[in-house]
Every structure is written in C-alpha cells, then in structure tokens.
Design brief:
192 residues; alpha/beta; seven-stranded mixed β-sheet; 7 strands; 28% helix
C-alpha cells in the first residue's frame, strides 16, 4: 500500500461573489486581483438596451457583463479563492441564485454617485443569510464618505465591514478580500 505524498494534498477552495449594481466595478475588481487571465462575458452595450438598462451615472460605459466574471487567487498551498463576478443589470438577476450556490461570502461593491443601486444586492444576501462586506469603489469626482457614513446610508448592521477601495488597484482589492475573509472567520468562530 502506497503512502500519500505531500503533492497529493489538495487545497481547500472557497467561492466568493463580487456583486453590486450596474457599472460599480465588479469586472474591474475581478480583473485586478485574479492571478489568472479572468474569464469575462462582456458584450457591447447597444441601442437595444435603451429604455431597458439604467445608464444614469455611467453614460460612457461601453460594455456590460451578461453572465459572469471569473478569477482565481491562491492564498497559499492550502487555500484558493474562486471569484465570481455577477452581472449588474436587473434583467440578468436570474443568474444570481445559481452564482450564489455554494458561496462562502460576497463583496457588494458600492458607488457613492448611485448608492441606492446597492440596496438590491444587500437585500439579496441578507435574505439568503450569506455574509458579505461592502467595498466602496472610490471613483474620481464621486462624493467621498467615511465607511460609517456609508454604513448609515445603507442601513447596515454595525458588524458588517465597509471598506473604501479602488477596484483598479490590486492591493486595494486584496484589502477588500482580506477584510471579508477575516469577517467570515470571526462569524464562524462566534457560532462555535
């Protein structure tokens, strides 16, 4: 009988959703942090979306995610994060239930220019009991608020982490994900 070698040890995998409203930076975050070329399902926004998709505040946006974004981060030899970015438009919400299946947690990306677009994603995760944090993507020219001001505006419980970030910056995205993982670990420890 042969003994298992250290190479046979498999890493634990963790599924994390990157969610939020249309144009908040979900695809950008997955692309910034993934160690592999991200899988994207981006399509051009056409005039067919006129009257269907709300482009207020993101009038210059040229593409949109129509299914999901996918990326991967190896934390160490024992832990791999799989990131699934959700589509942001209401017409693609039917995909969220499937994407959420098996997820350990989620990041809800918020844009202070359109903070009200965060409520749907927050409600989605609260109704399903899926732990999440909020990452405020700090766009140039957008109003600047503290994490506590955003927490109050979104009516979040005090224990839900709110982090300011730049979805284009890998280190900023690392901070968002580290905050989420620490939050998930603390919640799991509190249940024991």
């Amino acid at each position: 009988m042969s003994e298992p070698t250290s190479a046979a040890v498999l890493a634990a995998s963790v599924k994390i959703l990157i969610a939020g409203g249309f144009g908040v930076g979900k695809t950008t975050m997955v692309s910034s942090i993934s160690e592999v070329a991200p899988l994207r399902t981006e399509e051009m926004i056409t005039e067919l979306s006129t009257g269907v998709d709300d482009l207020a505040g993101v009038e210059n946006k040229k593409t949109t995610t129509v299914a999901l974004d996918f990326g991967r981060i190896t934390i160490d030899e024992s832990l791999v994060l799989y990131l699934f970015g959700t589509p942001g438009q209401d017409r693609f919400w039917f995909l969220w239930d499937e994407l959420a299946r098996g997820a350990l947690g989620a990041v809800v990306i918020a844009d202070t220019r359109r903070l009200e677009n965060s409520f749907s994603a927050i409600d989605f995760f609260e109704r399903r009991g899926l732990s999440f944090n909020v990452a405020v993507n700090c766009f140039a020219g957008a109003p600047i608020y503290t994490p506590d001001e955003v927490r109050e505006a979104l009516d979040l419980d005090a224990h839900i982490p709110v982090v300011l970030c730049d979805a284009r910056d890998r280190n900023s995205c690392k901070t968002v994900l580290t905050t989420l993982i620490e939050y998930l670990i603390a919640r799991a420890g509190a249940r024991v």
